[in-house]
C-alpha cells in the first residue's frame, strides 16, 4: 500500500434512510482522520438521503447513487471503491465508537481479519447485550453468526466478494470462509466495543422461514450438510418438547 492510502475504509450502504444515515455520519465525523476514508453507497434514494450526503462531503470521501441488487451487491460496490488496507462496513443507523485506523495499525503481521465487540441496542437505544468475544474455533459460525458484522475489519487484498444469492447471511458465509481459508491464527481479537448496532435493520425484518432456508443453503455452501439435520432436530425439540414443558411448569401453582 502506498503511503498516501488510508489504513481503513469505512463503507455505509443506504437507501431512503436519511434520518438513520445522519446518526451514522455524526458518529464517523469526529473519529475520521487522514488514515480513514468514508464511502457511502446509495441505492438510488428518492428521499432526502442524497441532500444529506452532499451536505456532509467533508466527512464522505466518495459516494455513488444507483440501483443495486440488494444490500450485499451494494457492499460489493463499496469494496470496489475502497483504498484502505482494511475495510469496515457500518450500516446506516449504526454508530462508530472508536478510531478504527489506530486499532488497525496495531494488527499483527499477516492478519486477514480483526474483530471486536458491539453494543447490540434496541430501537430505543437501550442495551440488549454485548456481542463478540475471542473465537476459539471457526466452527462457532455453524451455530450462528458469533460476531457483529459491523465490528469486523477485513483485509482488503484478501477479502472475497459477498455472495449476492444470499439476502441475510452472506456476511456470515464470507467471514467463515475467510477464517477457514487462512486459519484462526491469522485473525486478531480487539477487546473493545467498536460500534453501536441497532437491532432494527433489514436482517431483523425477515421471516423465520426465509432465515431457515438461507441457513440450510449456508450449510450446503460450506460442506456441512449434516448440520441441517442437527438444526431440524433442535427446532423440533424446542417447539414440541421443551416449550410445552416450560409452559406446563409456568402454569403450575
**Mean pLDDT over all positions:** 92
Stretches with pLDDT under 50, minimum 5 residues: none
Instruction: Tell me the Rg in angstroms.
Output: 19 Å
The total strand number stands at 9
Main beta-sheet strand count, sense and barrel state: 9 strands, mixed
Helical proportion, percent range: 25-40%
Keywords for this entry:
nine-stranded mixed sheet
Short description:
The chain has helices at residues 18-28, 49-55, 71-81, 100-104, 170-182, 208-221, 226-250; strands spanning 8-14, 36-42, 62-65, 86-89, 95-96, 113-121, 127-131, 152-155, 187-198. The protein has 253 residues and is of the alpha/beta class. Strands 1, 2, 3, 4, 5, 6, 7, 8 and 9 form a nine-stranded mixed beta sheet that branches.
Please tell me about this protein's structure.
With 253 residues, the protein is an alpha/beta fold. 34% of the residues lie in helices and 21% in strands. It is built from 7 helices and 9 strands; from the N terminus they run βαβαβαββαβββαβαα. The protein has helices at 18-28, 49-55, 71-81, 100-104, 170-182, 208-221, 226-250, and strands at residues 8-14, 36-42, 62-65, 86-89, 95-96, 113-121, 127-131, 152-155, 187-198. Strands 1, 2, 3, 4, 5, 6, 7, 8 and 9 form a 9-stranded mixed β-sheet that branches. Helix 2 (49-55) links the parallel strand 2 (36-42) and strand 3. The model has no long low-confidence stretch (mean pLDDT 92).
